[in-house]
């Protein structure tokens, strides 16, 4: 594998695609609201991914479902007129995407040294960008509100297509070897990250799921949350440091931090009870937590976290600073912890 001397002029994807420079902007707040409104399941992007895999005999081959690997993704790209190559790229660059122009084919250049998991997702992500016809601008996403929103939307959509390619809904829902709600087992079998598996489960589950991703400071990076009358989800950008997700970050445990939260209204009347499982993840310099949750009445479907739901005590106490809290998350003087 030779080092690419003259980098192709294309869309650069960096190793750490953190949006740290964008999380305080209005465009990021609007982006969170947009994906929250669309919900975790996107029929348009599912259709795009299934169309890509439609040419394969993916549902049954000798009675076994086919799971994509880098070779099958390379063949898929080839059929789409996309060259998928691996080479030595500058440090911290994960891939470079080249849209088709004139008679020139589109291309995806992956950095050598990526793990199989990283290479497969990067390839799927690049294919997603190219088949969705995303416009790649040399303009800094921070240069305007509209360019910021377009950048965030395109990255989210490409991520969704990548996950749908690697975890085909038709296979995952009917997989006899796993319980779709067991994040660790699902991630291991399909060779995807914990975050990707959790997000895919939220999209395909037959129960309403809560999904949150935060950075180590509590800033919300992704969310699918139904308005529950307890927290002003659509206007918050950072979670309370008393919540279970922040505890998962604080203890940096590889095991899930489970939480049972009673939600109260302004008059301290019980609205609902929720169950959350939060996990701290540290990966290539990124530190964050992912949480998957649901109503407590359906929590027995979430596998792999606790053996007995009855062992989880209710986590709730009076907010220590209800009048001075800058976040103003709760509609009552109580917060789940």
Structure description:
The protein folds into 2 domains: 11-172, no CATH class; 207-336, Beta-Lactamase. The strands form 3 sheets. A 5-stranded antiparallel sheet has the order 6-5-9-8-7. Helix content is 31%, strand content 21%. The chain has 337 residues and is α+β, with helices and mostly antiparallel strands. Residues 57-63 and 331-337 have low confidence and may be disordered.
What is the rounded Rg? 21 Å
Distance between the termini: 51 Å
Shape: globular
The residue ranges in which pLDDT falls below 50 over 5 or more consecutive positions are 57-63, 331-337
Give a topology summary.
Elements: E1 11-14, H1 26-38, H2 43-53, H3 70-79, E2 82-87, E3 93-98, E4 106-111, H4 116-131, H5 145-166, H6 169-172, H7 183-190, H8 194-204, E5 210-215, E6 220-224, H9 244-251, E7 257-264, E8 270-283, E9 286-295, E10 316-318, E11 334-336
Parallel strand pairs: 2-4
Antiparallel strand pairs: 1-3, 3-4, 5-6, 5-9, 7-8, 8-9, 10-11
Helix pairs in contact: 1-5, 2-5, 3-4, 4-5, 7-8
Keyword list:
globular; 5-stranded antiparallel sheet; 9 helices; alpha+beta; Beta-Lactamase; 4-stranded mixed sheet; 337 residues
């Amino acid at each position: 594998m030779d080092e690419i001397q003259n980098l192709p002029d294309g869309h650069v994807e960096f190793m750490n695609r953190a949006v740290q420079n964008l999380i305080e902007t209005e465009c990021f707040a609007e982006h969170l609201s947009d994906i929250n409104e669309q919900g975790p399941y996107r029929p348009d992007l599912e259709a795009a991914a299934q169309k890509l895999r439609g040419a394969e005999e993916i549902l049954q081959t000798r009675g076994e479902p086919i799971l994509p690997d880098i070779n099958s993704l390379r063949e898929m790209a080839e059929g789409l007129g996309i060259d998928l190559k691996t080479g030595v790229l500058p440090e911290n660059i994960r891939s470079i995407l080249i849209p088709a122009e004139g008679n020139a084919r589109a291309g995806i250049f992956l950095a050598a040294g990526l793990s199989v998991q990283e290479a497969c997702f990067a390839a799927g992500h690049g294919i997603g960008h190219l088949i969705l016809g995303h416009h790649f601008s040399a303009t800094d996403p921070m240069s305007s509100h509209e360019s910021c929103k377009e950048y965030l939307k395109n990255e989210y959509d490409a991520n969704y297509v990548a996950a749908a390619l690697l975890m085909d809904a038709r296979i995952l829902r009917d997989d006899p070897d796993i319980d779709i709600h067991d994040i660790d087992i699902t991630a291991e079998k399909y060779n995807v990250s914990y975050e990707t598996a959790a997000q895919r489960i939220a999209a395909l589950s037959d129960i309403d799921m809560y999904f949150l991703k935060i950075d180590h400071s509590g800033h919300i990076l992704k969310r699918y949350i139904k308005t529950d009358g307890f927290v002003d989800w659509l206007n918050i950008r950072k979670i309370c440091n008393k919540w279970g997700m922040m505890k998962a970050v604080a203890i940096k445990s590889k095991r899930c931090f489970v939480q049972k939260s009673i939600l109260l209204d302004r008059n301290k009347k019980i609205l609902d009870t929720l169950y959350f499982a939060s996990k701290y993840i540290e990966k290539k310099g990124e530190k964050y937590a992912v949480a998957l949750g649901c109503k407590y009445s359906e929590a027995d479907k979430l596998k792999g976290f606790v053996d007995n739901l009855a062992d989880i005590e209710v986590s709730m106490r009076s907010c220590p600073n209800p009048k001075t809290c800058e976040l103003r998350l709760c509609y009552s003087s109580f917060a789940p912890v």
